[in-house]
Amino acid sequence: MRVLIAPDKFAGTLTAVEAAAAIEEGWRRRDPEAEVLVAPMADGGPGFIDVLSAVVDGTLLSVTVRGPLGDEVPATVLVAGETAYVETAQACGLHLVEPKQRRPEDATTYGVGQLIAAAVDAGAKRVILGLGGSGTNDAGAGLLAALGATAKGGELSKGAAGLANLTEVDLEPARTRAAGIEFVAASDVENPMLGLRGATNIFGTQKGIADERKPEVDGWLTKFAELAGRKTADAKGAGAAGGLGYALLLLGAERVSGIDLVAELTGLREKAGQVDLVISGEGAFDFQSRDGKVIAGVAKVANEAMRPCVVLAGKVQIGSREMRTMGVESAYSLIDAVGEERAFADPHGSLAAVAERVARTWAR
């Protein structure tokens, strides 16, 4: 039996690398002779660098940058020749702030600009940024400020609230700093930055923006966009990571699918053609999994290779009809199999136990 294991992270419990190891361990208990290929995945959010550092021949550059609320946080840039990979969540991720301390209207992407500067100073001519998991909603104004952009009437580095009274924005210093650099924004989000489908209204709740605050916050971003470039705010992907996509598009970035980029770098398509079964997984297999997420991308690759794809997840909240539409044959829930308490107390052991059960059904 030949198996390809290509999971996403199980948010809050296991990285993609750890999840893949647990699935392999469980499978081998039932099928020790199996030929197992491993390809941990990411869609641009948390875990992006962890996954790529295992397959890209490069050097990890350690830096310290400003976190979403101003505290210094450690981060890494993966430098491979003249290409650098940046995980923006390391500087502005939601996971960096405790739930009770979240102030999304004040959170900044300034640290992302510092990561870009570090990549450029290291000799990068091409910077690929994974977008996702952000705790910010500042339209990328902080990033631009870190690269030299200035403003009157407000503070670009003070989060969305710093944009409230802007009267003028000068992006030229940032564009000069980034001149000659090719930017690639890797994200699963295609939303524009403003309006009902924009960053604030669609993703603001998960960052802590109250519903009654959304119109005003969206208005702050609108004011910034009118001064910095209104047309770009409507572009596909401008709303990614709280508008971080918008700032990168202002710098001339190309937007690509995060899962497609990682699939290419990890050789997922070639590996899928060499196996009998493809296994993916994530913390919650739900309706959000359909839109540019890891499971959807892995299932698509498996189907193109005419291989069955099964999913292991902490929770399965999608019906069999919907999962088959995605190209997933079956899905298995850790919580249903071992109980919620054990699933969270021992995620590695629980995932391995479920993988062993799956092998009983699928191993030849």
From TrEMBL:
GO biological process: organic acid phosphorylation
SUPFAM superfamilies: Glycerate kinase I
Alphabetical keyword list: Kinase, Transferase
Signal peptide positions on this chain: none
Pfam families for the chain: Gly_kinase
Keyword Kinase: yes
GO MF annotation terms: glycerate kinase activity
Family in the record: Belongs to the glycerate kinase type-1 family.
Xref: PANTHER family: GLYCERATE KINASE (PTHR21599:SF0)
Name this protein carries in UniProt: Glycerate kinase
Naturally occurring in which organism (per UniProt): Kribbella voronezhensis
